[in-house]
Fold these 2 entries.
Entry 1:
Amino acid sequence: MENMDNISAVGTALQRLEALERDNEALRAANEDLEEALRAAEAANQAKSRFLSSMSHDIRTPMNAIMGMTSIGLSHIDEKARVQDCLSKIQTASAHLMSLVNDVLDMSRIDSGRLTLSEEPFSLADLVHDIAVIVLPQARQKNQELQIEIGRIEEEVLLGDELRLRQILVNIIGNAVKYTQEGGAIQVSLTAQRTAGEGPVELAFSCRDNGIGMSPAFLEKIFIPFERVRSAAVSKIEGTGLGMSIVKSLVDRMGGQITVESREGEGSCFRVELALPAAPRSRGRLALPEGAVVLVAESGEERARRIGECLAEGGLTPVRTRTGMASVTWLTEAQYEERLPCALLLGQELEDMPVLEVAAHVRQLAGREFPIVLVSEDDWAQIEYRATRAGVSAFVPCPLFSSRLLDTLSELMGGGRGNQSAGGELNADYSGSRVLLVEDNELNQEIAVELLGLTGVQVEVAGDGAQAVDMFAAAPADYYDLIFMDVQMPVMNGYEATRRIRQMDREDAGRVWIVAMTANAFVEDVRLSREAGMNEHVSKPVDLERLQEILRAQLKPGGRE
Amino acid sequence: MQLYQQEYIANLRRIAVLTARKKPEGLPFADYEARMDRDGEQAEALVRRNMELLRGELFPVLDNLFQADRETLEELEAFAAELLNAREEQDAGLFCQIYRALLSLARQKDDQGGMIRSLYWLGIGRNSLCSCLVGLELELSEPYMTAMRLCFTEAAAYLKYYDEIEDDQTRGYILRSRANMALGAFKSPGEKVALVRRTLQILQDQEYQAKAPGLPWERFIYMTHQHMAASISYSKEKVLTPKDMTDIMESVYIVYQRRIQEAEANWEQPPVRWAFPYYAIEYYCGISRLDRLLTKMEDLMDAADPAAFTEDSMYGLISLPAFYCQYLQQYPERIPERREYVESLYRRALDYVESFPGDLENESLFRYLRQLSHTFVETEGGMPYGAFMQKLLIRFAPEIYVHSLAVGEAARALCGLIVEEEPDYFDDIEAVRVLADPEEKRQAILDYAAGCGVFHDVGKINFMNLYARTARQWFDEEYEMARLHAPAGNSLLAARPSTSRYAPAALGHHVWYDGSRGYPAAYRRLECPERQMVDIISLVDWLENVTHTARLYTGIERTYRQAVRDAVDQEGRRFSPLLTVRLQDGPAAARIEQAFEEGRRRARRQIYEAAPVEKR
């Protein structure tokens, strides 16, 4: 019995011992967890300390510029151009400071779960063009070759948060530009393919560069907030170290995946995969004649190939030329044989001459209705004035999306499919707009009325300046949208008529757009017409293109409301 | 031609004589000055009359061109032919204006023959305008060359329908257009050679010849060989293929042999112009070395007769030296041993142009002078580039010179006023900042201002037909082209050590102070250390222009007082407020006005001294 008790006591003791050991084990585990947590906290703390130190530096840099430039500006307050220069530098530094603050705010929103994603329809073509406009100039500044290749796009209008998607892509490409040396190469590609049936569209994006790359150690931490590559090569590159962690968080929130491969000194490749629903289709049928020929003038092989592919997708037949001279020869022959192509697509560059000079000549050669489409990487806002003056009918931005190109061609050919448009199309309908044509010569009147009539605009004719003044005075306010005014006329000339209209005591007298139409083409004549109150000057015999250009600039297609 | 057309042409000739600034033997300066004023007034009256003729007679015709009868159109073409032809260039701008209108008409009427003819002549007119662009960077001249080339290209495209075209004249236009596609500068000389080669193949094709036996085929072919031979002047030795070389060599030999035969038949020396390609091609093909080519060129230049005012003498004394100096620029190690020769070459060229009769009507002379001024080589102890250019301006563009010297004097005066109050005002300019002695510094600033004034418009040497021979106001297109004088002046001055410091003034004097307007975009004020001086030239240039020089071609005219008021109104935008504030000070403004007058008078004195004497 005593033995039994002893055994039982030993057993209990053993159980206690085991329990103690278990407790110890748990304690050890808890200790280890605590130590790990402590290490993590310390690491996070260190990272935050590094961030704070880095942020202090990053904030101080633009702040120094702002303060410095302000004091320089103040000390040269009389020198407007100097002050302007200081203000523009202050603006740049402020914008940078703002982006730092925005990054921090974004991160904090993501951390606290306050970030919501919208789900709106957006066009991939617009998105890619916007991105290109932002990143291409940065890459050009560093003489980098940045290629954006558009692969298979099965659906172009998707549902998602365009703003955040743009943030992801700009961040990744922007980083590639930042961390790639001068003259380096960056290759971006994008596809949007359906995985199955009517399921979501798999958006696959990749960005490969031959820049400085990352070490394996850094690669593990790339998505951790506040981490940045630290090396002499990047010490001057601005950034918070938040960009990639924001990108990762956004991709996660969108239910996607981001992966990265990199080798130090060789470059990096980021891949993003997202499944996004396609927006409901609203596009009609394209009005493109099957097999019709389009002349493609482009010297770059890759760009010409891409344009050719897009045209083929629309059932069109591309014919390619590499030079302006070959294009003009081809078009002259085609015109003579009455087989003009359905459009001329002018690419980014030609071997022998600037594309806009070719456009200007072709506009004269092929007439006002012939569609000339500029397909270019340039920012339309920068070249619009020169391009439209040269006679370009429409602009399609690169990277090239076939839908964008085909829609534009379709619209120019009188078809179109509703809601899509690119650039300023030539043959708009101005029915409802009213134009006063002041011209004493009957034949000139007839020609101008004929030409203007084609656009749907309502034309009223005055035979001399005095008649024009009377008609304007008798008309209700804003009755005329535009006045084409001959200069040399009997009874009252165009200058005098314009002066009298401008002097009238009515609100629209100063506003109505008056265009001088005259063979008096001296610089002084242009000045005199301006001094008389005319807004523009058109040389005679009337350049048909120029007439269209003015209508396009001054009238709203579709007419008055 | 109609009467107004005849009168216009006569006025052009008269204006050329009035602006020639000849000096009757023994005429004192005061009388010469009075004569200059009188001539100037007469020329202005003729310019005004020309404007009346164009506005009252020509423009209404162009206005109503769609209903013009056949006779009117023929007269218009006859008038155009007087404005520009193979012998002389009277008014290429107006020529283009007429053919642009005729082309629009032909397109409107779908008149194929008219279209081809108008395209050809419009191309010829544009080519004539392009000759002003010699020496400019291709980027600047390309739009003009392209517009010219595409006219010829479109006309030449009708070659495919050669059989369907019935009249030989139109076929001739097509063939000449085909040849002219190779006119002007190209990105690569090989492109040019390939175009000429193809033209030769077409012209030598018996089938084409048989269908239009009335055309001067031999002349066409020979002219095209000339074109091919001349292309050696534009070529660089490393970019031509062996095939290009062979083709050029063949053409060179054909042209040279024929010229030798012609010379022998007339008991004359073989022409210099076609001997140069003959020697050059030997060098390009590796048969001879550069030194031998240079020696041969020296022989040719020495053989040119300075007393003969023929095309060949002009070529030998002005154009060939330009090519010679171009080789020296490419191989500067050859310059020291040829220093004296280079010197004598420029002296001879200047002596030659100074004795040239009827100079202001000779477009070839201007073209060659443009070449020479763009390839000028400065040698140690030799003639400085500035002195050379000054002589050219005095001789061929006296009005520009008067303007430039007046601007220089006024800039000096304004700088003097500024430096008195703010000695460090120009310290952004390194050459000024390093000078410690105040008087030395002041003098350096004044000299610099005067130099900037004298040379700021030197690029106008490219556009003498627009500036120095103005016979009417400019057309819009000419105004655009004239703007190229700023980058042209910059590249002329920047390329030579003795004038490079004046280049910013040439480049930037038409750019607005706040950068919002003006030209060219290449001048960025805030990046330019000499901007304070450029601001000054910009202001005084504008004041002089609107009060004196520009009224002829832009119709703008102000009194000095109005101009000062306008300048002050534009302070901070067009002009530096630090400068316009000086204009508001009455005595300072008066001092500047006086400086303008002094500058003009000094320039006139120099023109008088250099003017060619008209024998009684």
Entry 2:
Amino acid sequence: MQDSEILEALKVAQEDSKWFSEKYEQLQTKYEGRVLGIKNKNIVGDAESVEELLNIVQKKGEDTAYLLIETIPAKDVSFIL
Amino acid sequence: MPKIPCSLRALVGKRYFPFVTFFLTSSHINKAIDAIVDTGSPYTVLSTNEILGTRLPIHTMQKGETVALAGHRFFRYLINNVGMSFRTETGELFKTKLSSVAALVPTKLDKKTLNDVKDIPSIIGHDFLEENKIAFYFNPSAKITYLEYDAPPVNTLCREPTT
């Protein structure tokens, strides 16, 4: 990939990550326990698993290289990494 | 000093955790990835979800050292010759090349295990920060976090066009 393509993809992904972080609590109510595909500050698909998500977003013609894959854990789950 | 912005996410109990976005390139992967910055982790790793997201055959990746994380056991499968690119706050590309980066491949690949590990994120660890001379600033009460590097990266090749 050309550097200019990477930079453009990163710009979108960075903004999507920031959007997801800011909306996290709001999205948690609706998408608890789901795997989400995010692009251009939109949820372009949600599913039980990554495999299921890929099938959904690829049917919509999304390029998964430019998609942020995020999860929203159940509210009663905590992680100490 | 040049900065790479991170975002803060209230994952657990309204505590904020720092995430950074990068673009991974290798012979088989071109992908935008969000990772938690964890100075307590000795390793930088790609999550199981990210590997599944590439549709690479994960069952052939059950190789390497095993590590325990969040109550699960994983192989550290090494993906060789990778590039990791970050976008700085001034719109430049910060590029690093690594001989390898590890993918977290569960020692069990049944449906229950994959579901149990799906919330474990990719991690930017101590190794990456040290090898690339990157500092990490994290002030959760002021909600400020970023990565910072001392010198311009060798591979700063690209800047966004000014409009």
